[in-house]
Amino acid sequence: MECEARRFVEKRKTALNRLWSTLATLGILSAWSTTVGCHKPSLTPQEQEGKHLYTVRCAHCHEDNDLGLKKVPPDLHHVFAGNTLPSGAPATDAEASKVVLEGRGSMPSFAGRFTGEQMKALVAYLHTGLR
What we know:
The structure is a single chain. By secondary structure, the protein is an all-alpha fold. The chain folds into 2 domains: about 1-40; about 45-125, Cytochrome c-like domain (Cytochrome Bc1 Complex, Chain D, domain 2), CATH 1.10.760.10. The protein is about 60% helix and about 0% strand. It has helices at about 1-40, 45-55, 60, 95-100, 115-125. Helix 2 (about 45-55) crosses helix 5. The longest helix is centred in the N-terminal third of the chain and has 37 residues, at about 1-40. The radius of gyration is 27 Å and the shape is rod-shaped.
């Protein structure tokens, strides 16, 4: 009878150890997935430059519409998520650059206001979804 009781206790200990191990693993995974899901990867230096350019040259229309434009400019968050840009043009770096540099509709041309490197930085930032 005593041997059966010991075996029973050992089985219970083993089962409890497995349970605690599983719970600890789930807790760690849960905490990890929460931080991973909420953490936004940091921007590269090029993307940071693009963010600065977007903030000082684009956001006042595309975010704030502080010029009071009757036709509100398109939201550029996740502009590269689909196959086309808001203009209907293919969602490519070249087309996005073309729209910025040549203008389109009520958007003025920004030709001469961005260097080639700045244009690349702006497009790189647009690819981040504007985070």
